[in-house]
Amino acid sequence: MPGVTGIIRKQPTGNETRESHLILQCMMNEPFYITNTSIEDEHGFYAGGVAIEGSFSDCMPIYNEKKDLVLLFSGNTLLRRRLLIISGLKDTSSILMVSAS
């Protein structure tokens, strides 16, 4: 099932990368699912997600230019934005759409 998961520990035990991959494998229920991860051993941050290939979430994680911020997102929110583009609106960068699904 698509979604995000993570382990955050102040004192990593050394098993977190393996554990996070095991969690992701439990979420891989369809052949068209993909996994994505962000692992920062030195900070005790192990996150990942499962997404439908070709969906909005299949490019996660997204990092900023300095690579000191990371975004992991699960879901699809682009339907309305795509409709706006199709209807002629060229710049949709200022439109924020939030989905609770």
State the gist of this model.
The protein has about 100 residues and is of the alpha+beta class.
Could you outline the blueprint of secondary structure elements for this entry?
Layout: E1 3-8, H1 16-27, E2 33-40, E3 45-52, E4 62-63, E5 70-71, H2 79-86
Antiparallel strand pairs: 1-3, 2-3, 4-5
Describe the structure.
The chain contains two helices and five strands, in the order E-H-E-E-E-E-H. The chain is α+β, with helices and mostly antiparallel strands and 101 residues long. It has one domain (3-74). A three-stranded antiparallel β-sheet has the order 1-3-2, with helices on one face. Strand 2 (33-40) and strand 3 (45-52) form a beta hairpin. The protein starts with a strand and ends in a 15-residue tail after the last helix. Mean pLDDT is 78; it is low at 92-101.
Low-confidence stretches: 92-101
- Residues in helices, as a percent range: 10-25%
Spatial strand sequence of the major β-sheet: 1-3-2
How much strand? Answer: 25-35%
Number of helices: 2
Instruction: Count the beta strands.
Output: 5
**SSE order:** EHEEEEH
Our measurement of the CA-to-CA distance between the termini, rounded to an integer number of angstroms, reads 13 Å
Q: SS-based structural class? A: alpha+beta
Per the principal axes of the C-alpha atoms, what is the gross shape?
A: flat
Mean model confidence by pLDDT: 78
Largest sheet: 3 strands, antiparallel
Radius of gyration: 16 Å
Provide the domain count. 1
